[in-house]
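Notebook entry, structure prediction.
Reason for the run: the old model in the group folder had no record of what sequence produced it. Starting over properly, with the input documented here first.
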Amino acid sequence: MIGQLTRRATLGLMLAAAVSTSAAAAEKIKAVVIDGYPARALWVKEFTNFFIPEVDKRLAANGNYEMEWQESYGGSIVKPKGVLEGIKLGLGDIGIVTTIFHSSKLPSQAISAVTPFIAPDARAVAKAVDEIAKEYPTMQNEFAAQNQVYLATGVVLDTYQLFSKTPINSLKDVEGGKLAGAGMNLRYLEGIDGAAGVRGGLTDFYNMLQTGLVDHAMLWPEAASTFKIAEVAPYMLKADLGAVNSKTITVNKDYWDKLPDEVKGVLQEVAVAYRDHVAGIAMDRAAASREAYVAAGGTVVEMDPAEREAWAHAMPNIAAEWAANLEGKGEPGEQMLQTYLGKLANAGYTPVRDWTADLSN
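New structure, fully documented this time:
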């Protein structure tokens, strides 16, 4: 009996020693994550709650590496528009870049923004854009020029809608008004008489509406709920402009080159899982967010389908312009556009307007 206890104790000590040795053998890798948006923003919150734990879990399975995370959000290192430059300069190792702020440096990232009125589905758009990024070198090369490695595209909104300070029942109520937008979506206003776009970020919209700098804003219900937009814009026109990719996870290239292959692989895998996770949450929260907006005093008006179609045809063919711009740089813009629309069609989404109609071939 004593011999059995001694053997068990010895085995226990050996096991404890093995675990201790394994833990001690894990190489620690520091990672500074940055975003200018606050921690309460959906994509930032889920980076903390999903991306980081998932990376930790997968690395722990082998026990070779352990990440030491340092998260810096809400402007502590960079403002919302400064993530691209911050990652380029090494102010952060991993960042969530809001791509709509960088149309000149990241033109191919606008592929979903230049094709409105198609898919109010974050999951379908995120998957299609990310596949385009991995099937064509264009998007990854744009980030490479910014000293960054592309991991995955994120879509955090089900669909853009119009929010207003005053009752809004149709586009007539938008004519002559000032409307806040974040980037390419301001081009949608070119089909509305007298409407003027004012560029701003999501964190700016509340004050822009409250102070009268703008009369209306384009954003999505989850963001409207999170940032209490009903307090300053209690009217929403449900136009279903469509989901748009606006977030991309990138890694500083110098930092990336020093990472072990195992860590690189896990980061790439988890970025795709995060892509689908965030898009799923965006869709799950869409209906609840509209209800929360109404509960907070907001009024929702469904846009007439015929007027919605007329709006789509009134604006310039910004998709064809986008493709031509890339073609002029030697990139396969037209092929990327056709492939992207084909992916959405396979997912069951048909555009209100055929954005390929004006392509050169």
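Summary: Residues 18-23 have pLDDT under 50 and may be disordered.
The old model has been moved to the deprecated folder.
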